């Protein structure tokens, strides 16, 4: 997959430690790698999105996200020109505008987040979980990699194999 995408220095790969170690670590990718587990291991929050954005390179060409719904949702926000503070997007004081190409690679089956224009986050200061739907949150490409599903729990695999 990384070879097909021709990963470059101005790309950002967002994933988790398990996926990175299993599929990407030995590839010596030239891009910036950000691991969501370095920030938290739960559902995305505005604090996590903003912390990752602050650590991210300026003006990445592409955001490549590989993981479950939480990682894909964080990546959707990161692909926008402005996402700090995130609350301004929800308040409507900043309009969502795509800043980077967004490539989403799901590692689970379920919501289909990779093909929706919705991203969900908990706004910690407001103690509320909200979704934002906007055209700018659509992925430019969704890539399905069957090998990423091999680590799904056994009770899920028969359903995936039947599809």
Structure description:
This protein is of the alpha/beta class. It has one domain (11-146): Rossmann fold, CATH 3.40.50. Helices cover 26% and strands 21% of the residues. The chain has six helices and seven strands; from the N terminus they run H-E-H-E-H-E-H-H-E-E-E-E-H. It has helices at 2-5, 17-24, 46-55, 69-78, 87-91, 157-162; strands spanning 11-15, 32-35, 62-67, 101-106, 118-123, 128-133, 141-142. The strands form two sheets. It has a five-stranded parallel sheet. The chain has a two-stranded antiparallel sheet with strand order 5-6. Helix 3 packs across helix 4 (69-78). The two termini are 22 Å apart. The model has no long low-confidence stretch (mean pLDDT 90). Residues 41-145 form the Alcohol dehydrogenase iron-type/glycerol dehydrogenase GldA domain. This is Putative NAD-dependent 4-hydroxybutyrate dehydrogenase. Pfam families: Fe-ADH. GO terms for molecular function: alcohol dehydrogenase (NAD+) activity; metal ion binding.
The topology string of helices and strands comes to HEHEHEHHEEEEH
CATH architecture: 3-Layer(aba) Sandwich
Structural class: alpha/beta
Largest sheet: 5 strands, parallel
Task: Spell out the blueprint of helices and strands.
Elements: H1 2-5, E1 11-15, H2 17-24, E2 32-35, H3 46-55, E3 62-67, H4 69-78, H5 87-91, E4 101-106, E5 118-123, E6 128-133, E7 141-142, H6 157-162
Parallel strand pairs: 1-2, 1-3, 3-4, 4-7
Antiparallel strand pairs: 5-6
Helix pairs in contact: 3-4
Give the key terms.
163 residues, alpha/beta, Rossmann fold, 5-stranded parallel beta sheet, two-stranded antiparallel ribbon, 7 strands, 21% strand, globular, alcohol dehydrogenase (NAD+) activity, oxidoreductase, Putative NAD-dependent 4-hydroxybutyrate dehydrogenase
């Amino acid at each position: 997959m990384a070879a097909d995408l021709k990963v470059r220095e101005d790309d950002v790969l967002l994933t988790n430690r398990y996926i990175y170690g299993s599929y990407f670590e030995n590839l010596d990718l030239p891009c910036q790698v950000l691991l969501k587990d370095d920030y938290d291991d739960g559902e995305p929050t505005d604090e996590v999105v903003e912390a990752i954005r602050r650590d991210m390179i300026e003006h990445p060409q592409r955001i490549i996200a590989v993981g479950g719904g939480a990682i894909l949702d964080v990546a959707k926000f990161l692909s926008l020109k402005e996402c700090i503070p995130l609350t301004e997007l929800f308040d409507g004081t900043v309009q969502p505008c795509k800043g980077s190409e967004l490539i989403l690679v799901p590692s689970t089956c379920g919501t289909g987040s990779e093909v929706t224009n919705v991203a969900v986050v908990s706004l910690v200061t407001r103690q509320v979980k909200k979704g934002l739907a906007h055209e700018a949150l659509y992925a430019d490409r969704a890539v399905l990699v069957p090998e990423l599903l091999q680590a799904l729990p056994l009770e899920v695999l028969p359903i995936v194999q039947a599809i």
